Amino acid sequence: MGIVVVGTVAFDTVETPFGRGENVLGGSATYFSTSASFFTDVSLVAVVGEDFPDEHVQFLKSRDINTDGLQRIQGKTFHWSGRYGYDLNEAQTLDTQLNVLTQFRPNLPESYRDADYLFLANIDPDLQMEVLSQVRRPKMVACDTMNFWISSKPEALRRVLQMVDIVVINEGEARQFTGESNLVKAARSIISLGCKRLVVKRGEYGVLMFTADSVFAAPAYPLEEVFDPTGAGDTFAGGFMGYLASTGNLADDGIRQAIIFGSVMASFNVEDFSLNRMKFLEYREIESRFRRFKALTHFQGLPESI
Questions:
Q1: How many CB atoms lie within 10 A of CB 110?
Q2: How many Å apart are CA 134 and CA 30, to the nearest integer?
Q3: What percent of the chain has pLDDT over 90?
Q4: Which residues contact 182 (CB under 8 A, 6 or more apart)?
Q5: Closest by alpha carbon to 183, among 150, 161, 215, 213?
Q6: Looking at residue 106, what is its pLDDT?
Q7: Exposure class string for 247-262: b at 16+ Cβ within 10 A, else e
Q8: Which burial class, exposed, middle or buried, applies to 299 when counting CB atoms under 10 A from its CB (0-12, 13-18, 19+)?
Q9: pTM value?
């Protein structure tokens, strides 16, 4: 089967200089699975409350996302409120209501446990470990995290990072986790834990990928209008993992291509609030932007010396 993602499905209230979205669909697993669904089969594991409308579930199903792992329990759905200034790289959190997320215990349906690809989105690292114990022999496991878990559960997070193939985090989190101000040194420190690759999200400055002996850099796609960067990192991860799962090419060239596809998906996501842009996105647009991305970064090598 394709990808299993374990994360959050949520309501977001977001303010930017360009507008406001009130109680819109959000959550790490939502953005990831929607993005990945353009490339491969996706199965979602998350929890919502009694207040979660069926129309959102139907949207996920319309993208052929398997929702057998979406638990609905008594209580209210996780809700996050944030505000962005003109520097859209960082949100100011106004309110976080964990609600049913405090009761979340991921229990993978039997059909999920043979997944070839697993993405552990931003949840408690102890829960990430629970998920790892439920899958059998995935070809690739990747994970994300956030500053809250880095400060509150560093040892649990360290155990997770030792057991995954790829770590996907932003540059502030890389520096916070390692205590290194230099990003290259921070990357080396994380890779030394045992993961094969570190993918560092840098917002409008693009993406860096580190291995033990190489660095790959990709810029962000230049956009005239950016309305809402919420979920851009999870959308990137979904495009990245979705493309890898669709090709099965886990060599360096395939992973570099996947980073560009992830960047393409994130560039579409930020063009509107919530998942509004993704709802009307067509695959031909993705391919077209990928080609323009390639042209953006192409240059000729030096001529051979005579």
A1: 8
A2: 21
A3: 87
A4: none
A5: 215
A6: 95
A7: eeeeeeeebebbbbbb
A8: exposed
A9: 0.95
pLDDT in tens, 176-190: 999 999 999 999 999
* Structure token digits, residue 139: 């070809």
Range 109-116 average pLDDT: 94
CA distance 299 to 215: 18
2 and 245 Cβ atoms separated by less than 8 Å = yes
Strands 197-201 and 207-210: antiparallel
Q: What single-letter amino acid sits at 7? A: G
3-145+227-297 belongs to CATH 3.40.1550.10: no
What are the distances in angstroms from CA 269 to CA 17, 199, 231, 293?
17, 19, 8, 16
What's the length of the chain?
306
Beta bridge partners of 119: 5, 142
Average pLDDT over residues 13-26: 92
- Kindly report the number of other CB atoms within 10 A of residue 55's CB atom: 8
Domain range annotation of the chain: 3-145+227-297
Token readout for 156 is 């649990």
Helices (H), the chain: 28-36, 54-62, 125-132, 147-152, 154-161, 171-178, 183-191, 232-247, 252-269, 276-279, 283-297
Burial, 70: exposed, middle or buried (Cβ in 10 Å; 0-12, 13-18, 19+)? Answer: buried
Identity (one letter) of the amino acid at 144? D
pLDDT tens digits for range 231-244: 999 999 999 999 99
CA gap 223, 31 in Å, rounded:
20
Q: How far apart are CA 232 and CA 240, in angstroms?
A: 12
Where are the alpha helices (H) located in 192-269, listed in sequence order? 232-247, 252-269
